[in-house]
């Protein structure tokens, strides 16, 4: 299993349903990253779900069964860009 640091990404798809999730793309990863929006999984740290085009911060990114998954996700904030 491969693990990556924190990355910023742009949401490309939001899939609603019983176990909602989102798909995001990052220029620093070779493939798309998925993350759960379900409250029971505690991955998405915000009250509102992201929309397509939203910039997000993904952490604890792991390659599982050939696909990238983030286990911590939140909206990108102005303080994230201060450096």
What is shown here, in short?
By secondary structure, this protein is mostly beta strands.
Walkthrough of the structure:
- The protein is an all-beta fold.
- It has one domain: OB fold (Dihydrolipoamide Acetyltransferase, E2P) (Beta Barrel), CATH 2.40.50.
- About 0% of the residues lie in helices and about 50% in strands.
- The chain is built from no helices and 6 strands.
- Strands 2-3-4-6-5 form a 5-stranded mixed barrel.
- A hairpin with a 2-residue loop joins strand 5 (about 55-65) and strand 6 (about 65-75).
- It is globular, with a radius of gyration of 12 Å.
- The mean pLDDT is about 90.
Itemize the secondary structure elements and their pairings.
Elements: E1 2-4, E2 7-15, E3 21-25, E4 33-36, E5 55-64, E6 67-75
Parallel strand pairs: 4-6
Antiparallel strand pairs: 1-5, 2-3, 2-5, 3-4, 5-6
Features:
83 residues; mainly beta; OB fold (Dihydrolipoamide Acetyltransferase, E2P); five-stranded mixed beta barrel
The N- and C-terminal alpha carbons lie at a distance of 31 Å
How many extended strands?
6
Portion in beta strands: over 45%
Give the helices and strands as they follow along the chain.
Answer: EEEEEE
Q: What Rg do the Cα atoms give?
A: 12 Å
* Count of individual helical segments: 0
Largest sheet: 5 strands, mixed, barrel
CATH topology: OB fold (Dihydrolipoamide Acetyltransferase, E2P)
| Relevant CATH superfamily | Nucleic acid-binding proteins
Q: What percentage of residues falls in helices of 4 or more residues?
A: under 10%
Mean pLDDT: 90
- Side by side, the strands of the main sheet go 2-3-4-6-5
CATH architecture: Beta Barrel
Low-confidence stretches: none
SS-based class: mainly beta
Cα shape: globular
- CATH C-level label: Mainly Beta
How many structural domains are formed by the residues? 1
């Amino acid at each position: 299993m491969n693990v990556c640091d924190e990355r910023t990404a742009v949401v490309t798809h939001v899939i609603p349903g019983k176990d909602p999730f989102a798909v995001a793309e990052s220029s620093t990863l070779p493939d798309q990253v998925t993350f759960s929006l379900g409250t029971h999984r505690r991955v998405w740290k915000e009250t509102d779900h992201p929309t397509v085009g939203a910039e997000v911060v993904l952490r604890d990114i792991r390659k599982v069964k050939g696909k990238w998954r983030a286990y911590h996700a939140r909206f990108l904030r102005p303080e994230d860009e201060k450096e």
